[in-house]
Amino acid sequence: MMNHYEEHRNLELAGAKVGVCRQTAAKYVNSGILPSEAAQPRNYRTRTNPFAEVWPMVIAKLKLTPELRAKELYDWVCEQYPGEFSPGQLRTFQRHVRKWRALDGPEKVASCPQVHPPGKRMSLDFTDAAELGITIAGEPFPHKLGHCTLTHSNWCWASIVLSESLPAVKLTLQDALVRLGRVPEELWMDNSTAATHKPGQKQARDELAPVAPENEGRMREFNTGFLELVRHFGITPRTINIGKSNENGDIESQNGHLKACLNQHLLLRGSRDFESVEAYRRFLNQVLLRRNAQRGDVFTDELKAMKVLRAKRLPEYRVETPVVSAGSTVQVSSNTYSVPSRLIGQRLHARVHDAHVDIYYSGKFQVRAPRLIGRGHHHVDYRHVIGSLLRKPGAFANYRYRDAMFPTVTFRRAFDQLEGTCSSRTAVHDYLRILALAADGRQSEVNTVLDDLLVAKTVPRWATVEEFLPRAEPVAVPEIAPLVPDLISYDVHLPELSS
Prior knowledge:
Nucleotidyltransferase, domain 5; 4-stranded antiparallel β-sheet
């Protein structure tokens, strides 16, 4: 309008050009200000407040419990005054609550941005990877990721673990340090029982024991095993306050970013199934290498600030020395594992890794079993006790670990059919003999024969199973002529030796 007025010097024409009357055009020309500048802030209501009557009660509720959300509070108000409010008024109520919190509500805790010098702090944490939906050879693979992050550059490395035990901490930290080739000044962790224990209390053998409520808010002490680990690498251990995960916020945030990145790469891969754990580990390492390659100069600066890794890698297991019971089992970390019966009464050397337990006797390897998480569980291999059960078949009926005597569902179905068609004594005798055939390295073959017999509705008697088992072809050992060295060929070197 001003442009038109300057051109024609006619208020009526200028107003008509932009659709306003002559009086309005004259007002803005004479005042010399824009309409937005002339507008005054409104400090009055254009409609009555629908919550005026209930608002004192709402404020009282908010003062008593400030953490109440507006949605739940509105539902409560509607219950107190049925029929007076509609769902369409929720947004209005939420705006009222938001305004009250800003003007009269309690103080909020402001975040305090931190400065992390390069090379000073590394954080270690565990995060559940169940949401990734990883499967190994079609089977679900429940696991965690042990995650290390440098808080200055956000360089990170992760390891596949099954629990939050001390062996898992060792594996996670040492994988990261070896990959990094450097050592930071400090290692920060939460109050996991893998690293800490209750003040003044003897350290428990079970690393998965929960924190007692009476210790909430109290500083915990570092475990001896964890202190030995960090001292070996020359790192100062640090822990956050109990229940204050925000103090380790950098690693908590990176946990989410890491899993989001892995999920995107799994989508690009087109499958979440891997042929083995090792194949999954290779995939994880490739993703981590790509992420770390983007850290750039800030990571280079952090490398320069850290000392070179010179300490050797420590064994990633805990040692226990159980004695084999009369039942051919040992207690390791409050769980039961079976061993060959020839070791009954002997003291063994058990190495408890994060994912498995290796058992030795007199320095010689005997058994590897998957590590059981928690307490009171058992892993019994039927091959270790089948010989004893064959000698004492009457013990099978009430055997404590009887469920372990059925290696597959097919074996269980075969035993049920034997019990349904034969006497209990005959069924047990026949099944134990079938199990002995499987224990001789032929479990898959026996399982196939049992499947065929069950499909044919034939009773799987021991003699029948043995008859249908494929016969092993004798291996022909080739005859090898004895090696006779030709000593004449060495004579050519005699002149050299004499000189």
